[in-house]
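Components:
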Amino acid sequence: MARAEPARAVTLSDVARLAGVSVATASKALNGRDQVKDSTRQRVVEAADQLSFSPNPLARGLLAGRTGTVGLLTSDLEGRFVIPILMGAEDAFGAGQVNVFLCDARGDTIREQYHLRALLSRRVDGLIVVGRQTDPRPSLGHDIPVPVVYAYAPSDDPADLSITPDNVSAGRLAVEHLVACGRTRIAHITGEHAYAAARDRAEGVQAALHAAGLELVGDVMYSEWSERWGRDAAAVLLTRHPEIDAVLCGSDQISRGALDTARDLGRTVPDDVAVMGFDNWEVLTTNARPELTSIDANLQQLGRTAAQRVFAALDGVDIGSGTEYVAGRLVIRGSTVARR
Amino acid sequence: MARAEPARAVTLSDVARLAGVSVATASKALNGRDQVKDSTRQRVVEAADQLSFSPNPLARGLLAGRTGTVGLLTSDLEGRFVIPILMGAEDAFGAGQVNVFLCDARGDTIREQYHLRALLSRRVDGLIVVGRQTDPRPSLGHDIPVPVVYAYAPSDDPADLSITPDNVSAGRLAVEHLVACGRTRIAHITGEHAYAAARDRAEGVQAALHAAGLELVGDVMYSEWSERWGRDAAAVLLTRHPEIDAVLCGSDQISRGALDTARDLGRTVPDDVAVMGFDNWEVLTTNARPELTSIDANLQQLGRTAAQRVFAALDGVDIGSGTEYVAGRLVIRGSTVARR
DNA sequence: CTGTTAGCGCGTTCAA
DNA sequence: TTGAACGCGCTAACAG
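Structure:
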């Protein structure tokens, strides 16, 4: 264990002393103020990196009122969707000298309040609240003295700024792909009806079918977000409606189940029936037989966007309010388009 | 967007003024120093929460040298293994008034150095370095003025403190379970030989087999950590060695592939052949047919332990050095023990 | 162009 | 028991 020398960190006055100037001058020199002779600046800079000086952000923040930190308040770290958003945000901030406090409320409102207070008392400059579903969540309210952006789960208050995936257009995108592949008898198996993500995608699916002059085979089948449900539902569908030529699934997990069933029933994918899903979870999609076509929600991009909004707000820009939708992107693989 | 009132945060002197005392007294009163009359303390405390005062941690940190923050330096947020560790650590710290700075180096040494400097300049009180593999990684060195604990990927310097999964005993645990189930002709398919995790588990496997007076069927089959490899390897094995009654896989992904192949070849699991894996990745294990037995590495526990070591070091306890191993735990499901 | 002074918010002497 | 004064490291006024 490196307890090392308590090594009082090198301060600006150390630099100043070495360069033979006052701390004020050293400060100006290092911060690029223009009231300092070039030769002096030179000396200071040299002294600084000779001592490998780095300014103490606490002192700086104390003065500026800004800390250069933001809070990332997640409701769930287990979730598959939170992580990419987190990566995107961390990435965007990291590039901008901002550091990120991570807090996981674990879906508990009490814990969320607790963490919120902790973050505010640390004087974070901004806040990103990442939810685990796309359903609206309670607003943190408006007595928060820093900009707040809601990511993935939008706030239920339209006066807040939220960034969330555009699941309706994602559903449309999926159907348009299947139609472009020549499919006309399309069924839709998806997750829990309680999830806005399931309902929104289904809405997009119906809209696109309608626009193409088609109709869904059977009803939208809502149940669990699980592989097992994909298997069971596909078995029912393919048996009752043998004419189906495409099964659109509400998630990659469901897709995997559907794929399994198609295989069990001796239907070949994609020639006989196409299968596709949502989320583009690579572990599932790229290891399937055949590999799974999917709609990627661009979550990392979503995280970056949220971070940029916070940045903008920090610069005094009015970032507006309401919900901003991030489009998904189609990732075509062998389960809808045969590979030669 | 709550830009709210720029609302200069309430400071200690606001509290002092309201309570009609000096800042010094207010400070003492709120921090439980015992040189202050009870009635005075009372007044100050009331004033404080009337203004909902919370001390500025920057000012406090500037003075005390402690900030109540730690850095979590990960090499990879995508990885399946980093997240649970992170959760465990965040959980342990959160309970103790410590907040966590999250930095993702994305496997890049330059970025790691960059983040390290940033964290140190923010005066974090401690550091947890989370790697993505169990192979030793380069030490950050010993000129770091705060305690450092390496998690998952141990440091290559024995003078550092590292906490990592015990993969050798995990391998042993797996074989012992299979043997307890009456299996005697066991094969082992695993991931890349370049990974210590693969080699360590294989070592434990061989040791346990030896102890049971058994021998592995065929060689340990090293290749990719993928479902695809699981399928291919299982096909080779089960065809060449039809007597195999258990396939032990190096990961749940590989297990899933092996399961698929067993099914394709008409072998029933677990009656005919048992299958099990490592990692206990629930999305994969609980959705398989049958559900997959697996060894859970207790990563969340690992994260908590790492956090506790940092805590201890902060309290001045000598936390020692070397590598500490966290045992795995067997999670039995239907792929090794038939469910009625 | 450079240095002196002041103050960000807090905790800790040391006198009163 | 209380308060005035000092300093943590830094930057922004101002004066020189």
